[in-house]
Design a protein that fits this description.
The complex is a heterodimer of chains A (257) and B (148).
Chain A lengths: L7 E7 L6 H17 L2 E7 L11 H13 L10 E2 L2 E9 L8 H12 L6 E7 L5 H4 L1 H7 L4 E5 L7 H22 L2 E2 L2 E2 L22 H13 L4 E3 L26
Parallel strand pairs in A: 1-2, 2-4, 4-5, 5-6, 6-7, 8-9
Antiparallel strand pairs in A: 3-4
Chain B lengths: L41 E5 L29 H5 L7 H4 L1 E3 L3 E3 L3 E3 L2 E3 L7 H16 L8 H4 L1
Antiparallel strand pairs in B: 2-5, 3-4
The chains are: A alpha/beta (257), B alpha+beta (148).
Chain lengths: 257, 148
């Protein structure tokens, strides 16, 4: 990452796997290596495994993990902060509404938002989150309390052509809406992928189009000037979405405003 | 780990912009990243593959060299990621010409082809590559903790 000038990572910590000792070791390794090599990192709770039908222990488990495993990492000089607060992403609100209900999203959000240390919250939501303004206001009202909204854009488009339509219809309006709401906007972009490498899934669900797909997204994001960009993912090899080789080895800082 | 990823063949380079966006990103290839702010950064999602090389790698992936088996209903994310075949990324590389984004200078863009593994035969071939890779004694790209 240092050699390729990658800023850093958001480490996905899946709910339901908090007792995995090897991942705790990994977090320590990330901290050590990030400090050594001058990279940055923050934790992203992936809440997609949570089911509202079995919710009673969710918040206590999250708070316990946050206090005992994540908060100590936040003292690292390499841990990402914003406005003096450690960055924490909560991913999965509104992504599967049949599994995680709006009321439980609100409960999680408020519990984590008031946790110690008080985090700067990036909220990972579904790509069509803005429709919830009218379709699912209970979810939308939770989104409004985030510091940053990060719509998950892996899925609604799968080639350069469909991305163009998505950008024109969705990304531009998302940026305008978040500006209006006073919330930061951090889009996710994807290099494409393939299901061919997944067990039992023989059909490709996307193509990387020799990089032109990713390039198209990148160009548009430069125009939008979002708060930050989330590349999905650094190491998701099974879905062929790895960005490990997409290193920003050449910079064009003069593209800034 | 990822920070010590071996330099892939010269062909595996790339492009990209980071600090571009908000204009606040001040990272350079040699300087430490300022972790005090998010603005302007390009951050990659990280899932932690290869964190236990040679020690129960079947947590997130099949044992090296195995061909992916059928999905297990209900096993979700973990199982879907159980068919990890990493080596092909370093061998199937597409080379693109130097390109230009207006106003942003030249970008050397070379990307791996991930989307061409469709047949069981290809999958087996990739699995074999992994076996060979392992036998060669090379570290996996993300063998982080092992080296630090």
């Amino acid at each position: 990452m240092q050699e390729n000038s990658i800023d850093g990572i958001l480490v996905q910590r899946f709910y339901g796997q908090f007792d995995d000792e090897s991942f705790l070791q990994l977090l320590d390794q990330i901290r050590t290596a990030a400090e050594k090599y001058g990279r940055s990192f923050a934790v992203e709770y992936d809440l997609s495994p949570i089911q509202s039908t079995d919710f009673s222990n969710v918040v206590p488990e999250l708070l316990d993990d946050y206090a005992n495993h994540i908060a100590p990492l936040m003292t690292s000089s390499a841990y990402l902060h914003q406005d003096g607060r450690p960055v924490l992403e909560l991913w999965g609100f509104g992504v599967d509404k049949k599994k995680l209900y709006a009321a439980d999203c609100a409960t999680i959000f408020h519990a984590m938002r008031s946790a110690n240390p008080n985090p700067y919250v990036v909220l990972g939501v579904q790509w069509d989150w803005a429709f919830d303004r009218t379709q699912d206001p209970d979810y939308y009202n939770v989104y409004l309390q985030a510091d940053v909204i990060q719509p998950w854009a892996v899925g609604p488009y799968n080639d350069p052509s469909s991305y163009e339509g998505f950008y024109q219809r969705t990304s531009i309006s998302d940026k305008a809406l978040t500006d209006q709401l006073g919330i930061k906007y951090a889009p996710s972009i994807t290099p494409g992928g393939s299901a061919s490498n997944r067990a039992g899934k023989g059909e490709p669900f996307g193509n990387r189009y020799n990089g032109t797909f990713f390039e198209a997204q990148l160009k548009h994001m430069l125009d939008l000037k979002p708060f930050f960009v989330f590349g999905a993912m650094f190491d998701e090899f099974p879905e062929s979405k790895s960005l490990r080789f997409f290193s920003p080895s050449l910079w064009f800082g003069k593209c800034g405003p | 780990m990822y920070l010590t990823a071996p330099k892939i063949e010269a062909a595996t380079f790339i492009f990209f912009a980071g600090a571009i966006i908000g204009g606040a990103a001040q990272t350079t290839s040699s300087n430490a990243v300022d972790a005090s702010h998010l603005e302007g950064k390009v951050l990659f999602g990280y899932q932690g593959f290869f964190r236990r090389p040679g020690q129960g790698n079947d947590h997130w992936m099949i044992k090296y060299g195995e061909v992916p088996g059928p999905s297990t209903p209900g096993d979700g994310k973990r199982n879907s990621q159980a068919s990890l075949l990493p080596k092909f990324e370093a061998t199937d590389v597409e080379i693109s010409p130097i390109r230009h984004i207006p106003g942003c200078g030249a970008i050397s863009r070379r990307m791996p082809l991930h989307h061409q593994l469709h047949s069981p035969r290809q999958l087996q071939s990739q699995a074999l590559r992994i076996q060979l890779y392992r036998r060669g004694g090379h570290p996996f790209p993300m063998d982080a903790g092992e080296q630090h």
